[in-house]
Specification:
This protein is an alpha/beta fold and 238 residues long. The protein has eleven helices and ten strands.
Length: 238
């Protein structure tokens, strides 16, 4: 469903990714783990079009998308829940969610009615968002904003969803709730690429995992494979 081939990308004269390659099969959850600064978030940004790769390929359902605008990649079926949540603070919870559904809603009229089923699904996943649907997103707690960011990505009905550090800055009880939702989405067949600071938690939900070091993939395998790799255990799972 998603294939990254020999990707190079960075910021200005600083190249962060130096030949990153990975694959995400349809219906799978794939974890991307590594130390801070390894290039995980840059990988996500290069895949979703937030930054343009200098070399390499990104294939979404077999179609090359590298270099396309982020809005075009989103319309083709890739949704990105970014690091730091990035909700639209002055807008209500429901308006944030409807913005996530822009690719399949009417342009001018009837968008609330057209988005009703998707809203119901998100509110079923996150009942707290239903309770706060009219509240300004900027007044939500950190955990609620993370739920909103994930919900907004789901509203796009994506083929692939990128989740970048969904547990960042959250209390342990909220982290558990977020990962329960990820497990439920996995059971529903959602294809996900997950960047997560808590490697153990990521491996518990992943079907496959890639370990990134200095802008490229150092090792990959099933969670069981990585738990048997002494170097991975010492660096990330100890």
């Amino acid at each position: 469903m998603l294939e990254v081939k020999e990707l190079y990308a960075g910021y200005g004269l600083s190249e962060v990714l130096v030949g990153t390659s990975l694959t995400v099969e349809a219906g799978a959850v794939v974890a991307l783990i590594g130390a801070n600064g390894a290039g995980k978030t840059t990988t996500m940004r290069a895949i979703s079009g937030m930054i343009a790769p200098s070399r390499g390929e990104v294939l979404l359902d077999g179609q090359p998308v590298q270099g396309l605008p982020a809005s075009k990649i989103a319309r083709l079926g890739l949704a990105h829940s970014p690091e730091g949540r990035k909700v639209f603070a002055p807008l209500s919870v429901e308006d944030n969610l409807l913005l996530g559904a822009f690719r399949h809603l009417p342009r001018f009229f009837g968008f609330r009615k057209a988005g009703a089923a998707d809203l119901a699904h998100v509110y079923d996943l996150f009942p707290r968002l239903a309770e706060r649907r009219g509240q300004l997103a900027g007044t939500l707690s950190g955990g609620e904003q993370q739920m909103l960011a994930i919900g907004r990505a789901l509203m796009a009905r994506p083929k692939v969803m990128l989740l970048d550090e969904p547990s960042m800055g959250l209390a342990p009880v909220i982290v558990q709730e977020v990962f329960r939702t990820i497990r439920r989405l996995k059971a529903e067949g959602m294809t996900m690429l997950l960047v997560e600071q808590f490697a153990q938690a990521a491996l518990e939900v992943a079907d496959h995992a890639f370990v990134m070091e200095r802008g490229r993939i150092a090792v990959h395998g099933t969670p069981a494979d990585l738990r048997r790799d002494e170097r991975v255990v010492a660096a990330y799972l100890g």
